Amino acid sequence: METKTKHAFDTRVVHAGRDLSDRTGALVPPIHPAAAFARESLDAPPQYVYSRRGNPTRAALESAMAELHGARHCFAFGSGMGAVTAVAMLLKADDRVLLPDDVYSNTHRLFTHLTPNNRVRAEYIDMTAVANVERALAAEPTAMVWLESPTNPSMKVIDIAAVARAARARSVPVAVDNSYASPYFQRPLELGADIVVESTTKYLNGHDDIMGGAVFVNDPGLAERLALIQYVGGAVPSPFDCWLLLRGMKTLALRMERHQENALAIARFLESHPRVATVRYPGLPSDPGHEIARRQMHGYSGMIAFEMKDGAGAARRVVESSRLFQLAGGLGGVESLISYPAMGSGASQMGTAIAPSTSLVRLSVGIENKDDLIADLVQALRA
After folding, report:
1. Which CATH number goes with the domain that contains 325?
2. What is the mean pLDDT of each run of 10 residues along the chain (383 residues)?
3. Which helix (H) or strand (E) holds 140?
4. What's the predicted TM-score (pTM) here?
5. Do residues 237 and 263 both lie within one domain?
6. Residue 52: is it exposed, middle or buried by C-beta count within 10 angstroms (0-12/13-18/19+)?
7. 300 counts as catalytic
8. Is 309 a catalytic residue?
9. Residue 92 a catalytic site member
């Protein structure tokens, strides 16, 4: 019997999603823009019926992404928040959810402004200490633990395996937003998570030209429920966006290595700069989450958070003085971006207990020449 070779990640990402049964020999999967598909008879079960339920291009994408995460099931959505919302729809009235005290602003909005209409209650705790999670789980019944690692925007590292063990002891599923790491640097299902979410807009695509999201699970019961949510909810990506994402993913390994190389050089520069108070990058030995990141990640990605000694005014001047680092939302693209969370993605959290620091600056480090990027920060920090 022939044994299938288990190739390395950087080999698999190039070939994932290709239909080897396609007799045309095409190296690139075709785009199927059809909204509906004909069937031979009412009694003949078709492979595809309607694109909201399933589409050949989306199926190729979901197969490819599932392979990268080591997941049995993958469900693609039209945006990262579409994927987050699909996971939230697994909850029912009177459910309690635990989230970290540093979490993406629109996830915070979802769980504080929308899900309460369905009587879902969210609590925010410091998950960098697993004991806090254990106490919260013991305090009252919990339906889900949601976490990010590293967190957005402050780059806190949470021990995914330890949280998963604590939750599993009480039969509580754990969902992890992995958008900051990508499956190249972190695969939470292997660490004990039950559900993984990716904003595929970010590193998986890597070119700032599509919106997308995905949910990954191994459990067949969760998969059945998510398939219904995807079909009935209808927040699916277009076939063209699926095709673009398949194309973007092929260079994921190369891009992530360059993101990491550049980010580490910039983090070291920032750490030594007299105007910078603190730098959060898990690749730095000085980072509080470095040892956990070394255990659970295969690398450290391209996201950096740092705080200015002189507070909000200094942070704003840096953000507005950069030239190569573009002032823009989003992350994970080939271009370097800079943002000020207090007036950007985190603006909706200001005035709450989990508001980002007003001296915080976030960088999404791209794949440009690192010396050019550092030179840009040198002049921006002089402003």
Report:
1. 3.90.1150.10
2. 65 81 78 93 89 95 96 98 98 98 96 95 98 98 98 97 98 98 98 98 97 98 98 97 97 98 98 98 98 98 98 97 96 98 88 92 98 98 93
3. none
4. 0.95
5. no
6. middle
7. no
8. no
9. no
